[in-house]
Amino acid sequence: MANSSSLRTINELLSCPITCVIFHDPVLADDGRTYEREAIEKWIVQSGTSPITRQPLNIQTIRPNHVVKALVDEFETTMKKKNYQFKLDVDVRKASRQPLFSAYGKYVYKAEWLIKNNGPQIILMKINGARAEEEAKFYVELTQHRHIVRTFGFVEDNPQKSADTNNSIMLLQEYAPEGNLFEFLQDQDSLPKETVLCEIFAQIADAMAFLAQKDIVHGDLACRNVLVFRFDKNDPRFNIVKLTDFGLSR
Question: What residue spans in the chain does CATH classification 3.30.200.20 cover?
Fold first, then answer.
C-alpha cells in the first residue's frame, strides 16, 4: 500500500494527489479527498477504490469541488496579472540563504510566496552564464507538460541585496519533494521493482516525446535531471517524475 501521508503533503490544496499537477477540474470523492476528474475516473475504473484510503469509490458519486476550483482560478489569475513576472522579496522570497543544490552555474533555493498563502511549494532557480536566457526560454515554453517541471515565471532580483546581476536569470518553479532521481535512488536500501522503474522510464519517455514534437533536443538526459515528486518502490501507480535542466537543449 502506498504511503498515504506522502500523497497528502504535495501541494495538497491546489494539486491532484494522483498526478501532482495543479487542478483543472477538481472533484470531491466519497473518501473526502479532491482529485482531478479525469485522473480519479481512470483510477476508479482500474481499481474501484480510493488511492489514499482504499475504500470503495463510485464514479457516479464524485462531484465538483467549487471551493478548490475557485482557489485554483484565483492562483492562475494572479499569475496572469503578474504577467508571470515576479520580484524577489516582494512577491516571493528565499526561504534560506543556502541553496538546496548548486552545479554548473545553477543555484536552487527553497522559496516562499509573499503574494499567496495557499500557492504550491516553490523553488527559485538562478541560472548564470551566456546561455541563461536561452535556457530560461525552454523552461517557460515547455512548462505545461505533466512530466516536465512547471515554471511559473521569471523573478527580478533585488538590486540592493545582490550585485551579481550580469548574465543571470531567476526562474520560479514547482518544488520536487524527493529531489533528483539519481541521488534518490542512491539513498534507497534496495532497487525498486521492475514495474516501478518501467513506469518512471515511461514518464521520462513521455516528456522526451513531447520535446521531439517541439523539435527540441534535451541534450543532457540523465537521472540527475529527473525530479522525483512522489515515489513508491512497490506500486508503479504512486510514482511521479518530471524532466528538468535544459541547459544543453537546442
Answer: 92-174
Write out the DSSP string of 9-71.
HSSTTTB-TTT-SB-SSEEE-TTS-EEEHHHHHHHHHHHSB-TTT--B--GGG-EE-HHHHHH
Q: What is the C-alpha to C-alpha distance for residues 65 and 117, in angstroms, rounded to an integer?
A: 20
The β-bridge partners of 126 are 107, 170
Every domain of the chain with CATH number 3.30.40.10 lies at: 4-81
Q: Do 243 and 228 touch, CB atoms closer than 8 A?
A: no
The structure's pTM equals: 0.84
Rounded CA-CA distance 223/242 in Å is 11
Tens digit of each residue's pLDDT (9 = 90 or more) over 100-138: 988 777 899 999 999 866 688 999 999 886 666 776 777
> How far is 8 from 77, CA to CA, in rounded Å?
25
Arch. (CATH architecture) of 4-81: 2-Layer Sandwich (3.30)
Which CATH code for domain 92-174? Answer: 3.30.200.20
- Strand 92-94 and strand 168-174: the pairing is unpaired
pLDDT in tens, 40-55: 999 999 999 999 999 9
Cα–Cα distance measured from residue 226 to residue 243, given in angstroms and rounded to the nearest whole number? 5
Closest CA to 152 of 195, 119, 185: 119
